[in-house]
Write a structure and sequence with these properties.
By secondary structure, the protein is α/β, with parallel strands linked by helices. Helix content is 44%, strand content 15%. It contains 11 helices and 9 strands. An 8-stranded parallel β-barrel has the order 1-2-3-4-5-6-7-9, surrounded by 8 helices. The longest helix is centred in the C-terminal third of the chain and has 22 residues. The termini are close together.
Length: 337
């Protein structure tokens, strides 16, 4: 490696079959504590709505809950879906988090609804936001965070003067152009929409404009990772995730099931192809396989950070996957040193 690579975790607060909501959140806390121990840089939650199996809807509350029960790992959003909120409310929420947990809070921003159109309309009080101006609202949010807003009639308390880094999230090339224009860090959602990840990073890195935030591009890629002691075991623990993708595509949004309870044999060819498209950036294997795959991604895309999404049913297997993955990155970075 030519540079040190950071590694982080994305959590959707996915409900497992047989778990309560309380148990789901307890597992998120334990996961974040393990991530901190394993040397992960940050632990992010993504905003979703109207999904019985994904309960990260009150994203800022979850961030505070996890930050309270960890010591040093950065905690944030991957991301807040900005069209669902006023920028003032987000400045206040994340200003509050920054005051509670100084220098530990990240604010990743997306412009997708994070849900279906009807629920998005409810969240936005009937405003469909078909022509939502993402850039304008990012600038508005930055203004609320800025001390230069001190003479405005509307101010964010807390929020004004807060130290909350912003990240632009995307699942297509659109946000790559915007992140490059604004000179902000850019994270691509390869864990569910890998179709344009190469083009997106090429656009972002080639068009990047230095800013007060960054003097050079900062590229992050989120991928699904299933790591185990053997390749066969890694394949086995990934089955639950593939079933979840099938359920999503068939609009059968059930809790995550045990690998033994999956039913992946009878997919139509069309459904199979769609599943393969959505999971093209799933990295499955033992430590050596992961090392090869991750190294190739980092070199091909000139990445600065990889965010790991591990949708695994068995909790001990999930923690083991995090540990093996962390070992891969630690070895990369030891070689760098």
């Amino acid at each position: 490696m030519s540079k040190e690579i950071r590694y982080s975790i994305l959590d959707l607060a996915t409900v497992l079959e047989g778990d309560t909501y309380t148990q789901t959140f307890e597992k998120s806390v334990l996961s974040a504590q393990a991530a901190e121990k394993f040397g992960y840089e940050r632990y992010w939650f993504s905003e979703h709505h109207n999904m019985p199996s994904v309960i990260s809807a009150a994203t800022s509350l979850l961030i505070g809950h996890v930050a309270q029960q960890t010591q040093s790992i950065r905690v944030g959003s991957g991301g807040i879906m900005l069209p669902n909120h006023t920028t003032l409310s987000i400045a206040e929420q994340f200003g509050t988090l920054d005051a509670m947990f100084p220098n530990r809070i990240d604010l990743g921003l997306g412009r997708a609804p994070g849900t279906d159109p009807l629920t998005a309309s409810v969240l936005r009080r009937g405003d469909e936001n078909f022509n939502y101006n993402f850039e304008y609202h990012i600038q508005e949010l930055l203004r609320y965070f800025s001390t230069e807003n001190a003479n405005a009639k509307v101010r964010a308390f807390p929020g004004e003067g807060a130290n909350v880094p912003l990240y632009i999230l995307g699942s297509s090339t659109d946000s790559a152009y915007l992140a490059a224009k604004l000179g902000m860090p850019y994270a691509f959602a390869g864990h569910f929409a890998p179709g344009q990840f190469r083009q997106a990073f090429e656009i972002y890195q080639s068009r990047f404009t230095p800013s007060k935030f960054l003097d050079k591009p900062y590229s992050m890629l989120c991928v699904s990772v299933f790591a185990a002691e053997t390749e066969d075991e890694a394949q086995y623990i990934s089955l639950s995730h593939y079933q979840a993708i099938v359920n999503l595509l068939l609009d059968q949004r059930a809790p995550l099931v045990h690998p033994e309870n999956t039913n992946l044999e009878d997919m139509s060819e069309m459904l199979y192809q769609r599943v393969m498209q959505m999971t093209a950036l799933s990295l499955i294997g033992d430590k050596e396989i992961l090392k090869s795959k991750i190294s190739q991604l980092i070199q091909d895309l000139n990445l600065d950070e990889i965010m790991v999404y591990s949708n695994i049913y068995d909790f001990e297997s999930k923690l083991k996957s995090y540990e093996i993955t962390s070992q891969v990155f630690k070895e990369f970075n030891q070689n760098f040193d």
